[in-house]
C-alpha cells in the first residue's frame, strides 16, 4: 500500500463523517469526565497555542506515538514495540515486483511504482518515533542484498534516487526483544 495515501484518505473520510482531525499536534492530557459523559482533551498546536476539546468519543490513532499519548493519562504499560525501517528508491530495474530474502534470512521487497523500484525494508527498534531516519548502514544493507540476489548487477549508492524511513507500531510481545521475530 501507499501508506501516506492510506492515512490521508482515512483522515479525509473521518472528516467527512464529522470527526475533527488534527495533525502535528501534541496531546498534553486527556481525561474522561463521567458527569458530563465527555472526554476532555488538551493539545498543543503547531503555532504554540494550547486548545481544549470536548468529545463524546476519542480514538488514539497516533500510530507509533500511542503509548506516549497514553502516558499523559498515567498509563505505565506499553501496547507497542515501534520498529523503524528504511527504504530506498532506484530507477526501475525489474519488470515485476518481488519479495526476496537477504543473506541474514530477513525478507525484503522490490516494489515497482511507475518508473522507480522501491526497495525495503530494514528493521530496528525505534523507541523515539520523532528521531527516525535513514542510516548509511541501512542503505548499504539494501544495496548489498540486491547485489547478492541479482549478481548480474552491482547496485551503487549513487543510484539511490530517494530514501525514507518510517515507524511501524507493532504489538508489544511480552519478553520479545528481537525486532525481526516481532515483525
What does this structure look like?
- The protein is an alpha+beta fold.
- The chain has four helices and nine strands, in the order αβββαβββββαβα.
- The two termini are 17 Å apart.
Task: Describe the structure using short key phrases.
183 residues, single chain, three-stranded antiparallel beta sheet, 9 strands, six-stranded antiparallel beta sheet, alpha+beta, 33% strand, elongated
Tell me the layout of helices and strands.
Layout: H1 3-16, E1 26-33, E2 38-44, E3 50-55, H2 66-71, E4 80-91, E5 98-101, E6 107-113, E7 116-120, E8 124-125, H3 136-149, E9 162-171, H4 179-182
Order of helices and strands: HEEEHEEEEEHEH
What is the molecular shape? elongated
N-to-C terminal Cα separation, in Å? 17 Å
Low-confidence stretches: none
Residue-averaged pLDDT? 90
Q: Helix content range of the residues, please?
A: 10-25%
* Number of distinct beta strands: 9
Give the number of helices.
Answer: 4
- Approximate strand percentage: 25-35%
Structure class: alpha+beta
Largest sheet descriptor = 6 strands, antiparallel
Q: From the alpha carbons, calculate the radius of gyration and give it in angstroms.
A: 20 Å
